[in-house]
Every structure is written in structure tokens, then in C-alpha cells.
């Protein structure tokens, strides 16, 4: 049963992780472990701290580039962990966040690798309801969406604006629920966006998300479409996120 849980103060407050040379207002939350590992090995990312859970440590990387400091973190998988890490990074001074990752595709028109800038997400998970009043959807910050659009259009890349279906239960994406989400206007499915949008709104920070078309989630058969092997697409998304987080006013 849904019970509102919007008292501002909680028993346990997020603690800022220790970060070499302090935190940064700008973060990229990247779901691609392979991209982060490769950039680290190539000397472009330098570990300066970590966030941690019972499954281990997720490094906080400093992006080695001239200009304003950007920190990069893998936010974990699933809404509760991603929001927990987001909370800790906000406590460390984070104010502007761009999230990049893959997604399942429920709209057949979206090709594998196609870019989607999220404009909202249907809240079919539990975490967001502890941050915002009950509603059908959660929304990213307009400034973050505008920054992503500006960067993608500046590169001359094809993209679409789209609504995500955020769910906790990857093995309960039923035919009926998919049809309902299509009717809601969703084109992709993933596990974190609505919760990240809600937590960011509650904490009054700026956050947006860009994804690329991955596996095809359709009634006549799931198609993996080698979504996790698209190394060029994955690294492109990372650099788009970097450009976008630097473009947020």
C-alpha cells in the first residue's frame, strides 16, 4: 500500500565520501563499466575516491582534461542503489548531474544505438515515492535536457526526445504492462530514471539522462541486439554526457 513519506528530515542522512582535492559540482553518472575501465586504463580517468555498498566499491574518477573539474561515477544498478549513491555525491557538493546508460526498447521504431534524451519517466518503482508526492511520472531538470539537446544537435547526431518506463522488476515486463506503457507514451524501459529524477528534484539539484537503444522488448520475442557490445555507442554517450554536464549553466 502506498504511504506518503515526505517528512524532510530522515533518521539517517547521507554522508559525503572522501574525495581527493574535494568534490565537484559536476558529475557524470555512467552505467558503462567497460567504458570507465577502458578510459581509466588509458589514463583519462584517475580514481580520487569511492562510494561503496555491500557489493563493493564504485570508484569516483576525476576526468583528466583542462578546464572545470568533472567527476565520474558508476551509479550501480537499480533505483535504490543509484539514488543512494546520488545522495552521497550531493552531500559531497554535487549540483549538476548527467546520467548516461543503455535501455530496453519497447517502441520498435527505435534502432539499436539510437540516442534518446529522456523527458520524463513513468514511476513503476518504489524509491521515487519517498522523494516526491504520488504522481504518474517524474521529470528531469529542464536545464539538463536543454544542455543534452544542445550538445547532441551540435554534433549533428540523430536523436529523439522520449519517455522512459522505470521498473524494478526486469523479469515482470509483461505483455499487458508493455502495452499499457506504450499507451502512456513510453518508448524505452530501464531501472533508475524516475527515481533519479525524483531524488534530484527533492534535493534541488540539476539532473538529466541520455540513453541509447538496446535490447528489443516485444511480445513476439526478446532480441538482445548485442546491445552491450556497442563499444563506440557507449563511449560516445559518455563524452556527450561530459559535454552536457559542462554546458549546464
TrEMBL record:
What Pfam families does this protein map onto? Answer: PNP_UDP_1
One Gene Ontology BP term is: purine nucleoside catabolic process
**CDD domains to which the protein is assigned, alphabetical:** NP-I_spr0068 (cd09007)
Stored Gene3D superfamilies: Nucleoside phosphorylase domain
Q: What class of enzyme is it?
A: transferase
Q: What is its EC number?
A: 2.4.2.3
- Top-rank taxon of the source lineage equals Bacteria
Task: Provide GO CC annotations from the record.
Answer: cytosol
Catalytic activity line of the entry? uridine + phosphate = alpha-D-ribose 1-phosphate + uracil
Query: Domain named Nucleoside phosphorylase: which ranges?
Result: 55-216
State a single Gene Ontology molecular function. Answer: uridine phosphorylase activity
Q: Under which name does UniProt file this protein? A: Uridine phosphorylase
Q: Which organism is it from?
A: Levilinea saccharolytica
